[in-house]
Known about the structure:
- The chain has nine helices and seven strands, in the order βαβαβαβαβααβαααβ.
- The protein is α/β, with parallel strands linked by helices.
Amino acid sequence: xxxxxxxxxxxxxxxxxxxxxxxxxxxxxxxxxxxxxxRVVHALAAQCRLGGADVSVHCAAMDDAxxxxxxxxxxxxxxxxxxxxxxxxxxxxVAQVQDVTEAMWERxxxxxxxxxxQCIQAFVPNMLAKRRGRIIVxxxxxxxxxxxxxxxxxxSKGALHALVRSVALECAPSGVTVNxxxxxxxxxxxxxxxxxxxxxxxxxxxxxGRLGRAEEVADVVHFVARPESGYITGQxxxxxxxxxx
Length: 245
């Protein structure tokens, strides 16, 4: 049985958008979240409806626990109880370690890690009660390898991996799986910020010879969310074209 209700947190980003479109199908309730880009997500919702999905849009700040609870309550009011939670929200932080400010650290961890943790707290009780569910977070290759001038970002993604493995152990007896997908260099906005020259150099360093596509990440997320993937939990699935292997 395909998932009946899917919540995509961070649907306004390049990877989040691809994930939402991948899940858009008849008989699916698709809840799309954004922090600020409501116009972008409403346009995405229209595309997903063309795929036959019933779609709702929700705005919430992932660094505010009250916003997360309010989003859950809004879904509860519609009797939309997510079978699948995909956390694709996240922010970058580029700075040499000595230049990292407390505000940079707090913002990165509050959105990348605490927001995910609080979404788990908000939505996992219903999954545990139903004895089924999928929790998937979009992480990064840097959470496995570390990254120069991105120490805070890499640390936040590494924290996600530890969180995934720990919560997976708690939830496995109840039929709820928890996994991360860790993309390498993907052809979306965060990568574009580095400029064409850097992007070309990175592409040359990847054994597959190109950047990944957001749709390739979405395909892996969709696979992990399927009922047939119930024996996969506590894993960090790398999608990197052989980069760093």
